[in-house]
Structure formats: C-alpha cells, structure tokens
Recover the amino acids of this structure.
C-alpha cells in the first residue's frame, strides 16, 4: 500500500529508476544508518551526504529532508523483518522444524537487535502517517504464512479476525522487546516458549471451532434418518 498523497512529497522527491540511481540511494541510506548509530544529535543531511560521498544536491534530489531519510531507513528495516520471517518459514520446512518456533525466534531476534535505532525509525515511520501502511504489510505477511504449505493448519481457513488476533498478540510481545526490553519479566527463551505455546494453543482451538462449524453446517444440509424414513424431503 502506498502512503497517502499528502505524505508522498514529504518522503521522497523522485524514485530511482536506473540501476545507478538505486545504487546512489543505497549508498545514502547506508551512510545514514552508520551515522544514526552515533545518535540523532549529529544526524543531518550535510553529514549524510559527506559520509556517502555525494553532493548535497544529489541527496536532496532523492530526499527532501532528514525525516524522509529516517522513513526510508524504517522501510528498509521492516522489509528486512519480513524477509527474516519468510526465511524462517522456509528453513522450518527444509529442516522439518516447528515453523511457529522458527518464526517467533526470528521475529523476536529482529526486535532485540538495534533496539534503540528501531525505536527511532519506527517513531519516524508512524509519525509520517504510515500506520495504515504498516498494518497492511503485517496483514499481507500473515496471510502469506497462513497459506504456506508448511504452516500448521495449512489448507484450513482462519477468519480475518483470528489471524489478526494471534499475529498481533505475538507482534505485541516482539515490539515490547524493542520498546521496554529492560523491564520485561522473563528471559528471552521463556518469552519465546510462551509465545510458541500461545500460538499452538490458539490454532488448535481455532481449528476445532472451524471443524465443529463445518460439521454443523453439513448436518444442517443433510436430512435426518427419521425424516428420510418418514418420507419427509
């Protein structure tokens, strides 16, 4: 999903179309990431351009201000999160491991890594009015996982509400690892174990409910034995 029109001009000036332009943008973002690791106090477009080895005019050709660079870095971070989760699902299938544990571990690990930078970048991202974009990206990846043949209950449909509840429950714990890691009540391993237990228990209940609903629907459509014997259609 693209950001609302009113936000687009504030985020980028032009999109890179040629390979060379993509390389320039990547160099700018790499330099910005390295500077951001030193703190926000020295994070500005002049220093980023200098670190990237490009002119300030070139930088402004792609990014109107440092806020737009923070948003671009946030997008790159979130994309890396999605790739890590997808890779975990593929690894679980290849190794015949529990896909739920592999995904939870990957997700929690990503949120533990560079927690301070992640807080800064997600703050800029959501502050730019991109909460709906974030929600859509999460929804799309959850739907992809649910449809994957290696996922528990593959082939059985969960409702949108069920997918939302279980994914947000786990994502909420993951984001707590970023937002308030020092105050968490348990070790990383204990949190991982409980999150895995939660997902499996929820999926089992959801699957049971779906099976009961399907059975009830089938029974409602099938005439009873007594009705058949009495000739009632």
């Amino acid at each position: 999903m693209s950001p609302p029109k009113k936000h687009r001009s504030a985020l980028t000036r032009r999109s890179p179309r040629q390979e060379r332009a993509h390389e320039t943008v990547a160099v700018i973002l790499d330099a910005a990431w390295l500077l951001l690791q030193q703190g926000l106090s020295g994070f500005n477009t002049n220093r980023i351009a200098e670190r990237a080895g490009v002119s300030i005019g070139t930088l402004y050709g792609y990014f109107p201000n440092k806020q737009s660079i923070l948003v671009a870095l946030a997008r790159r971070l979130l994309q890396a999160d999605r790739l890590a989760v997808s890779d975990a699902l593929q690894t679980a299938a290849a190794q015949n491991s529990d896909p739920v544990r592999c995904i939870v571990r990957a997700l929690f690990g990503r949120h533990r890594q560079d927690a301070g930078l992640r807080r800064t970048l997600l703050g800029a991202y959501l502050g730019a009015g991109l909460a709906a974009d974030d929600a859509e990206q999460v929804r799309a990846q959850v739907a992809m996982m649910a449809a994957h043949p290696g996922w528990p209950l593959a082939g059985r449909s969960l409702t949108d509400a069920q997918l939302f509840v279980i994914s947000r429950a786990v994502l909420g714990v993951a984001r707590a690892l970023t937002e308030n890691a020092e105050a968490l009540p348990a070790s990383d391993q204990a949190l991982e174990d409980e999150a895995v237990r939660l997902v499996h228990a929820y999926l089992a209940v959801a699957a049971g409910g779906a099976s009961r609903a399907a059975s009830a629907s089938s029974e409602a459509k099938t005439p009873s034995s007594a009705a058949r014997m009495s000739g009632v259609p």
